[in-house]
Amino acid sequence: MSDPHDLVAFLDLGWQRLTRGVADRRAAARHPVFATVSSDGAPEARTVVLRGANRHDGTVEVHTDGGSDKVTSLRSNSRAQLMVWDDKAKLQIRLSTRVTILHGGDVADRWQNVPDGSRMAYGASPPPGTPIPNAHAYTKLASLDWFTVLTCRIESIELMQLIDPHRRAVFMANDDWTGEWRVP
Length: 184
Ligand SMILES: Cc1cc2nc3c(=O)[nH]c(=O)nc-3n(C[C@H](O)[C@H](O)[C@H](O)COP(=O)(O)O)c2cc1C
Prior knowledge:
The protein is an alpha+beta fold. Helix content is about 20%, strand content about 35%.
């Protein structure tokens, strides 16, 4: 490693590992934990696929079913955190974000790029989370009507690296991503 006190290089590493998750199915950042807050204040965490990471815009992108509980939660509280543990880089990445929910005409172009086999993730009858009498008592709709893009605008990035000695830093959008070291 070059200078371990170089904040810019540390942030570069974080973005490198994130963008790799979009391109490489086997990269750790492919499957972040996506945490939201329900309307009654309860934490909700689940695995998602990282579909986009744009350092220039300071955004990451997740695709989901518009009928899922996370979308209901995001309508009442737009804050979400994404968390990745990248074992190869010994790096935990936490992205604190505000989410914009896009659907319908706004995502029709992206829908064209969703492979047929993946479309079944969008839309179900009865809707996701509904109690059913047996494991298979549902139909997948594979419909643009339910295809929903979550654009997550990053407010802060926290990096924690378990090398010896440990390193931790926080980078804020409103501080132009300057970053500061924190006690791990
Ligand atoms: C490996 C893996 C990848 C997943 N990817 C997504 C995804 O990209 N989008 C999504 O909405 N759900 C995805 N899921 C399902 C979610 O973890 C979750 O079960 C589902 O979205 C319902 O969550 P909710 O009821 O909290 O909204 C994935 C699950 C696994 C195990």
